[in-house]
Amino acid sequence: MDDLYREVIIEHYKNPGYRGHLDPHDIMFADNNPLCGDHIEITVQVDSNGNVKDARFEGHGCAISQASADLLVESIIGKPLEEVKQLNKQHVLDMLGIDLGPVRLKCALLSLKVLKAGVYGLGEASDELVE
Amino acid sequence: MTLDVTSVREQFPIFQREISAGVPLVYLDSTATSQKPLAVIEAMDRYYRRSNANIHRGVHTLAEEATALYEEAREKIARFVNAPSARQIIYTRNTTESINLVAYAWARANLKPGDLIILTEMEHHSNLVPWHMLAMERGVELDFIPVTEDGLLDLEAYKALLNRTPKLVSFTHMSNVLGTINPAAEIIRLAHEAGAVTLVDAAQSVPHLKVDVQALDADFLAFSAHKMCGPTGIGALYGKADLLEKMPPFLGGGDMIKEVKLRSFRPNSLPHKFEAGTPAIAEAVGFGAAVDYLSSLGMDEIAAHEHSITEYALERLVEIPGVKLFGPDAGNKGGVAAFTLSGVHPHDVAQILDKDGIAVRAGHHCAQPLHEKFGIPATSRASFYLYNTKDEVDLLVNGIYKVKEIFG
Q1: DSSP three-state, residue B399
Q2: CA angle, residues B184, B187, B189, in degrees to nearest 5
Q3: ipTM summary value
Q4: pLDDT tens, position by position, B54-107
Q5: Any idea which architecture A7-120 has in CATH?
Q6: Quick one: which of B102, B87, B98 has its CA closest to B269?
Q7: Are residues B363 and B330 in the same domain?
Q8: Global pTM?
Q9: Could you tell me if B350 lies within 8 Å of chain A, comparing CB atoms?
Q10: Smallest CA–CA distance from B380 into chain A, residue
Q11: With the CA atoms of B347, B352, B356 and B359 taken in that order, what torsion angle do they form, in degrees rounded to the nearest 10?
């Protein structure tokens, strides 16, 4: 019935394939969306060639934030970190397959923001990372 | 007399619009801001079409008219809350600015490091952050009346706090999340016995209940026009005359002065002392029209109508498996129903309801500490006003069942 709650989103929200915390990890970053209280932590293991060996996310929040985190983590496994650095907003929106207003966009992009802040080794996640 | 909701709804043009084709608006977000009746929209339109000019000091016809309209609105607002005099009604931008005015002008002149301010755990951020800022700047101390599991203030704990001789007790008359209507007169009486000044955040009470500042014996009372059928951008601070007289000005500029020299000024008398610069004149006119509109319907009738809707809503909501309601039962509660739905984030609830044209709010409603107290990051909140109907409650309930279906 609802474009925003396509099967893929509900499925990834209810049965995420990549929920968890990797230990040891090479990259870890976490942040909140203060507006909704969404929280996402991402851990990444990197192999000797600089590719993502494995990745997981932990967190809580709305279906959009949690489903996009699961989809995002799934999409980066096996990819070179250099490629992960180039991911943008469109990558996440293409996977979700929906249009979002400005408020919900923040929910959808929280995981990308967290991932890129971690990959770039930044102290703080900024909105500019996901423009 | 009971409220004729059909004719009330006809006065609000927004109810003619559809959210999408064939989907009418079900507006359950009046706690955030109310919709506006024709009387308010037309008063502001008329002002701009006929009388627009800057107020005070003008001699021409339009300036006279604009000044008269601006000051008449103040008198209407004063009568609405039973203030002894219109000069005790200060125009501000909103409740938040009213509270900040007290924090800047009264508290900075009267409080010293170590002085205690009592707040409550159910405050909106607008009655927390100004005091946090004061605490950081001046070293005043803050303490809080606890909220019980039922969403009521713990008055025994309050009495114990009063033994520490606070200088100020600042509290919400009605919680914007729990809907709790606090026993303001008693809280104020006890504060006065302990020698404290009182500030009432009446943002949610003035729009919905008959509020009488003299019966309450409030020292300061803050409210906003936009939650009571008026425009955004204007609010009011009521204050006792002796307190307002002794306070230094708030913002500096035009209109708040009696006389300015190159190196000094003398402040204006009340209420203008606190109104620097060209104010929101059309909004003041709209504020006055809103007060007239509510008075013509009767605040007791409005409160009774909201009470019956709220009672019905709580009854229907509690029947839905997975729904958890927050706050006291309808007896002690304004028109607010904050709830969680098990397994579904409030934002998802609100988003799915929106597809059916149902506007509810989701989040922490600017009361993060209260949500932390109940161990939840957010709630969905439906709120009711004079124009809402039981049919709309039914639509809400059906919508929540739809959410449950989608999330399986």
Answers
A1: helix
A2: 105
A3: 0.84
A4: 998 778 999 999 999 999 999 999 999 999 999 999 999 999 999 999 999 999
A5: Alpha-Beta Complex (3.90)
A6: B87
A7: yes
A8: 0.93
A9: no
A10: A36
A11: 0
